[in-house]
Amino acid sequence: MSFSSNVKKELTCVPAGTRHCMIAEIAALILMSGEVKYENDVYSIKLQTENAAVARKYFTMIKKTFNISTKVVFKVSKKFHKKHTYILQIKDNESSLKVLKATTIFKTHEENSMLREYVDLTIIQSTCCKRAYLRGAFLGAGSVSDPEKGYHLEFVSPTLKHAQYIQEVMSQLEMDPKIVPRKNNYVVYLKEGTQIVDLLNIMGAHIALMELENIRIIKEVRNNVNRIVNCETANLKKTVSASVRQVQDIEYIQDTIGITALPDNLQEVATYRLEYPNATLKELGELMRSPVGKSGVNHRLKKISEIAEQTRQRRGGVKND
User: Fold this and answer.
1) Helices marked H in the chain — which ranges?
2) Residues 99/66, Cβ–Cβ less than 8 Å
3) Spatial distance between the Cα atoms of 98 and 153, rounded to a whole number of angstroms
4) Is the pLDDT of residue 15 over 60?
């Protein structure tokens, strides 16, 4: 089972809460994965899902909230590896209007009545209702990627108006979602791990939240270790490269004018560099008769390199890289 499926399974077990929270959750589901029809002066509602747990939850919620029994149709598609689909239907006009009016998807203003792509903000005025609304939206048409592969959570809305509505609800809960069109839909998405964790917490997926946090911690530690190793490797390469150049300069001086031609302090560091080619500047400094710091050793080695270069130029040698 995918991480996204596990999240949905957990969310179906979150207690429904009070009646106004259930109305908010049902409203989100209708707008995300439902269809409202008006034919022959009759309103009807159809909810569609591929998740049996989601179908059971909303069958129960609608019964509990409105005392309405929905008809459940089970379909198996012969395509796509026999995909299962659950369809919840409210066919009679009175029951459909009861749900649509309570969710404010059906709104009457003065003498005009209309179906809308969003609900009144009063429906989700409380934080608990905002949580329920986002939970319903996710169960209706949401998904989250496997955190081992990357961080991406999205809601796929059939209309821009409702996508913007979801974005506004999330913004009120201190998240910063983005919207992008995809085919005939609009996707509201988060790509930051911390915000996805916050949203899972808001919706009530605490087990999935802990799993994601554990993966984030492991990935962060792994990335930190890789950065440290890369940094150490780069420093080691620089040290080895510098040491090789220094040894080449000292050997050149030894073969031409002789190390004894150098001042005593330079002779000492040159001798130790030849003897300990892999030693750090600090280690070389500690070997001196009178210990010298890293900057002092570096200064002396630079002087030796300058003398080697001057000797090459006088003898017509090739400049050392």
Assistant:
1) 3-11, 19-33, 52-66, 93-103, 127-141, 160-172, 193-203, 206-256, 264-275, 281-287, 294-315
2) yes
3) 33
4) yes
pLDDT score at 32? 93
Angle at which helix 160-172 crosses helix 127-141, to 10 degrees, equals 140
Query: For residue range 209-249, what is the model confidence (pLDDT) as tens digits?
Result: 999 988 888 888 888 888 888 888 887 777 777 888 888 88
| Of 149, 141, 161, 154, nearest in space to 195 by CA | 154
Element holding 84 (H helix, E strand): strand 84-90
- Cα–Cα dist 312/114, whole Å: 92
Looking at the domain 3-204, which fold is it? Endonuclease I-creI (3.10.28)
Cβ 170 vs Cβ 33: under 8 Å: no
Phi/psi for 81 (5° steps) reads 60, 45
**Numbered ranges of CATH 3.10.28.10 in the chain:** 3-204
What is the distance between the terminal CA atoms of the chain, rounded to a whole angstrom?
Answer: 59
